[in-house]
Design a protein that fits this description.
The strands form three sheets. The protein has a five-stranded parallel sheet, with helices on both faces. Strands 8-10-9 form a three-stranded antiparallel sheet, covered by helices on one side. The protein has a two-stranded antiparallel sheet with strand order 1-2. The protein is elongated. The chain is an alpha/beta fold. The chain has 36 helices and ten strands.
Length: 797
Amino acid sequence: MSEDASLRAAAYGQGRIFQSERDIQITEHHHHGTPGTSVSATSPASVRVALSAPLRAALRDRKELREELLAAVDFGGGVHVLHGFGGCGKTAVARWLFDQAASSLVTLWVDASTEVQLRDGMLAVAADRGASPGEVRAAQEGRRAAADLVWQRLDASPEPWLLVLDNADDPRSLRDGWLRPSARGTVLVTSRQAVDPAWTSAGARMHRVDVLPAVEAAQLLHDLAPGDHQPEATLRLAQRLGFHPLALTLAGGFLSQQLLESWTIEEYLERLGEDPVALLDRGAGLESGARERLSRTWQLSLDALAQRGLPEAMAVLRLLACLGHAPVPVGLLAPSTVLAVGVPGLAAERVEAGLRGLLSASLVDLIEVPGYAGGRPVRCVTAHGLLIETVAAGVPPEQRAVLHTAAAKLVNKAMSREGDPGQVRLLEPHLLTLLNNSITAGEVLDAARRVRDAHDTAGRWADALPFAAGAAKAASRVGKAKDASAVADVIALGKIIHMGGDFAGAVPVVEEALDAATAWAEQSPLLLAQARFQAAILCNKRGRSTDSLRFARQAHEIRQLILGPTHADTVETIYLQVEILFHTGQFGLAVRLARQLVDLLPNLHGERSGEVAALSLLDSAVAMREALFAARSSQAVMDDDVRALSWDQVWGRSHEALHAHIAYFGPSHLRTASARHNFAVVSWEHGDREAAVAEIRGVLDLRRAELGDEHPFSIHATADLARMIGLLGDTKEAASLATKAYADALRILGPEHFITGLCRHALEPAERVTLAHLRNRGTAPEDDGSYEAGDDVLLEP
């Protein structure tokens, strides 16, 4: 070995070096340092250059945060911590600030991802700020307090400075004096840790860096992958990626760098469904590190937690990954519940430790979700959707079944407890996820049926639909397609589809239910009656009156034979026949049957007595109302039952029906809206025009809020409102309402549907010169403002 080489050799810690000079003499050198002290003879190539990938696009987002940080740098002093989960752009913000400040002050960048890199980088900072080689060497060798040397030099710096400590994801290494405030400069730390004593002791100002707002996320995609992309598609892709900056950057990088083929954003969105994480990683550069790849960025945090003695963090996250992307009530993870169901790889007493670890690493958040219907807020755990997908994809195949089953048992147990209905509603997305999973469908099927029926009873058919569809599919998955309960699931699905307004979509489902129930006619005739009853309702809604009446009478025969004439289910089939009869113009027969129907109500029995009584009263009122409408037509054939009717009688019955609906369903139920709709029409005919308009406006507002503008029931209410206000002279609003209602009805229901006819009639008073104006000129005949004969009103739902 040369003499030059011997001069460069050194030992650190308790190290010993043996050297040979001219292969005849061996010299032994000893260095006695502090036991356990790790030092390095290496330094970073530079602390004046940002050790991060350059920004791929101009930073347009987080304007308020950037302005605050820039102001802090301008005034000098203070410690700022950018915290948030992996890939949210903490380093990007730090890099932007570094570049902005470089022209006016000294900018220093240190990689703080490991203790060794932090120490080497900070000593290099000391050297940059004037520490001599001997001082730095003494600090490296443990003969001088390294952190004190660094901060002495920083505090004495002749120029103001900005010091970035990037990727300080394990702040324990900063607690030994490496992080301090200084009057000469500003410290900016990026970390995944939201809470740590290092931040408190330094008096750090905390800044949460989260996902981007929707508009900024779409703009980032456009900046990274400019081209002829549809703005709606760009926004959909940003939404699919959860507005996550790293995911957006990777997607934009892929779309802009393709050589062999060129995908549109729509094609990229479609491919994401196959393996989103693998596809996103293809947008990383060839030399990208783990932090620039979605498949690894979050694993770094989980690995760090495991090294800190918190392997349970991964187990908790895997359990969350079995559920949906919605917030998870913390009660679901209660140690007693976890103990009761037995979650593999997760001891009940370690659940809280694992959850706190995830919170500290910014992998999950605790949020307060507003209570349902004014109830108390519910504390929930939430995680980013892509994180959940990434973790779910990484669950070992042999653990998936037992882990998903444990999650299903947790949800079942929570759903079965009596408690806050708001918490139950929060569990529904997770129940639906498990229902649509072949592993757990059978486990949660009964719970899904209960949720479906609760929404159906409450008139929330849009909420009921996914559970109805999931239950029908799940029954088939678990091998019970021919079971009676599975047939009932298909019947329920058909009902909920048509109650949601999709009459055509309900047809094949109801036909399937009829076929399946017919096969069960001997074992369960009431099942067949239920299928026929739903078929009767659907046929009536679609204008197939003959088939509707046939199915209704068949259902009535079965129920009367088995349940008796005064059972609620039997009476239900009678009021359906009343409705069919007046829709087909058989008004006298409808009125007589409606009278018989009301006579049965005092003796009504069965579980649904209150519901059926309210609906029967409404049906009777509508039959009487429609008969009086028909009586105005010279073409109508009237009998004594119709001639005996008066609007006073109809108003009294309608008022009774409305109060029965409010008492049973509540004032805001969609079925109560039907009673209010009828009462509005009858009030108009009874002469109370202002009350009628106010009532129908309330009905329209409720239906729009619950069903949307284009639901048939909303269109119907719109048509009636347009007709009323048009007859009162407000032709401008009437024309606007009627024109839209008619266009929607034509498109959704077709030209022959009676609701379309109502909308067409509603256009008439809106299109002509107002009667009031003509009367002022003395040229108009008197018009009582009544509805024309044949203006049928649908009995909804």
